[in-house]
Amino acid sequence: MNVDARDWELKALSAFEAEGLLAGLAELLVDAVESGASIGFLPPLALAEAEEYWRGVLAAMRAGERELIVVLEQGAVLGAVQLMCEMRANGRHRAEAGKLFVHRRARRRGLARALLGELERVAAGRGITLILMDTRQGGEAERLCEVLGYTRWGEVPEYARSGDGTLHTTVFFYRRLVERG
Ligand SMILES: CC(C)(COP(=O)(O)OP(=O)(O)OC[C@H]1O[C@@H](n2cnc3c(N)ncnc32)[C@H](O)[C@@H]1OP(=O)(O)O)[C@@H](O)C(=O)NCCC(=O)NCCS
Questions:
Q1: Phi, psi (5° rounding) for residue 85?
Q2: The dihedral formed by the CA atoms of 106, 142, 28 and 166, expressed in degrees to the nearest 10
Q3: Closest residue CA from atom 16 of ligand 1
Q4: Which residues, judged by CB distance below 6 Å to any ligand atom, belong to the binding site of ligand 1?
Q5: Can you tell me the distance from the alpha carbon of 50 to that of 26, in angstroms, rounded to the nearest whole number?
Q6: Mind listing the pLDDT tens digit for each residue in 134-170?
């Protein structure tokens, strides 16, 4: 099933709202891992393990360290991204954009672009001026970061393991939300 741009909505969730979407979030994560995404897990990922992961995210949201932005279509979660805020005193102006994934059935419809746009809006609202992001070299997200104007600052070979067991290069990006005058 494909989705049309008019059918979905972007939402920055409260922890309470995210808890109500736990099953959909777990299904989304399993789909992303099965698609070969480099997001910290190796396939196969059990639904129960995915739910456990999201419970950890809920705890971080309740602690004020994490924001979760999703794309919803008729209650189904089609995509998600997290703003992982640096809580140390000298880094509260920066955060990482991580665990960005869009369900395979909804890709190439601009959802990731919209998710990152909303993430930046939420980040700016928290006074964050620097976003960091990393992704597998050659993966879909590398091109996404480039087209969105993120600055590539480095590459680390053999950074993470792929589903097939090989080690791959990770590319690191940043984006400043305000330019210094
Ligand atoms: C990366 C990912 C989130 C992109 O989601 P998406 O909703 O399909 O992306 P968008 O439709 O917003 O794409 C925006 C732009 O990014 C680039 N892009 C996205 N997917 C691409 C692909 N497979 N190949 C080449 N460029 C791609 C294109 O420039 C695209 O613009 P266009 O469609 O007008 O050409 C999605 O492919 C995904 O979930 N991948 C697996 C998880 C992952 O790798 N996450 C990144 C970890 S940080």
A1: -85, 135
A2: 130
A3: 144
A4: 32, 35, 37-39, 100-102, 107-113, 135, 139-141, 143-144, 147
A5: 5
A6: 999 999 999 999 999 999 999 999 999 988 889 999 9
Cα 9 to Cα 17: distance, rounded to the nearest angstrom:
15
Q: How far apart are CA 133 and CA 164, in angstroms?
A: 23
- Residue-wise pLDDT for 16-70, tens only, equals 999 999 999 999 999 999 998 888 898 999 999 999 999 999 999 999 999 999 9
Amino acid at 106: A
Q: How far is the CA of 71 from the centre of ligand 1 (A)?
A: 14
CB 53 within 8 A of CB 29: yes
CATH of domain 5-129: 3.40.630.30
Distance CA 12, CA 35 (A): 25
Q: How far apart are CA 28 and CA 125, in angstroms?
A: 27
CA 148 to chain centre: 15
What tokens does 23 get? 């099953």
Probe residue for ligand 1, chosen from 42, 99, 107, 152 as the CB with the greatest number of ligand atoms within 8 Å: 107
Question: In angstroms, what CA-CA distances link 4 with 72, 108, 111, 117, 179?
Answer: 12, 11, 10, 18, 35
